[in-house]
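Posting this for the archive.
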Amino acid sequence: MACVRLPSGREVMSAQEFTEWEENHELRGTEFHDALRREVSKRMQISNFRQLSLVCGDQILGPSRPEEPLLAVVRPYVARMKAELFSAIRKNALRDMVQLLEQPCDPNTTLTDGESLLHSAGRYGDRTAVARLLLEAGADQDKADKAGDTPLHVAAHFGHMEVVRCLLEAGADKDKENNKGWTPMHIAVCQGHLGVIRRLLEAGADKEKSDKVGQTPLHNASLKGQLEVVECLLEAGAVKSKTNNVGRTPLHLAALAGHLEVVGCLLEAGAEKEKSDKDGSIPIHLAAEYGFLDVVRCLHAGTDMDRGREPHGRTPLHLAALHERLEVLQYLLQAGAGKDVEDTRMALPRCISVHSAGIWRWCSAC
């Protein structure tokens, strides 16, 4: 009875399975042989590029149907073709890649930094056909390099939408973290690739996943000032007041970076402007400290201007004085901030005089 075994003796197709397969495939000659090779390759989970020989006795199986057990022999990968493989990707030479894979060459070949052929396809634009070919040849779509980046991380970084789509269709892990804890979504957000972000969201990527410092994609978008990305994430239901490892929300980060439009967008979406971080800072403290007058104005309404932060109880006015933010100081004083409020180290007038005579004059005039 015909069956298929490996040289190790492990059975790939039992005699019963072989008979059932034959009955379901009314094929003759070379069609039978080719179909059987494809079936055995599928069961062995190897690509069609691997040269699989079916041996009957001491002969390669011909077009006739076998009556005795078959031996499945897989040709090993050809070594020392790494340079040619990566060159074919750089040149986008699809025909060369087909010929190399038919040698057969290992589709999971890597460089010293762990970059695979699929990583390289994700790095260059217009490599979708090459990526599909590599996947067909058995390339690992989730293979990570030494930085922990998968091909999807790389394609997301460079904004190559079609390669991203190809990898997602192949089942790539859309939420896999690299060594920084960044997912492909984090990376696409930092680069501002809105189309890639939308495709990842459509594929069900986790928009709330935190990196090693506790930041979600919305934190990154807010810090980078990516307004359209912030709007996209909020429309997708991103949590607007989630905190990172130091207790800061996306609004804190937008405020300290001076991104007025993002601050306004977050406030309109209902972000909490009185939420404090682990040092007791609310967003207006950070805007005052870094001297972003327009952001201070935006955050002013309905905010306790005399609220102090740890460890010294410094108000936005103290911080503006300490960091010599003259315009912010002037605005806060004119808005009624308490210039007599003391922190635990010194009263405001002394604080101002220590740091800047010019600022002292502003305070004295008020």
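Residues 353-360 have pLDDT under 50 and may be disordered. Residues 258 and 292 are 6 Å apart (CA to CA).
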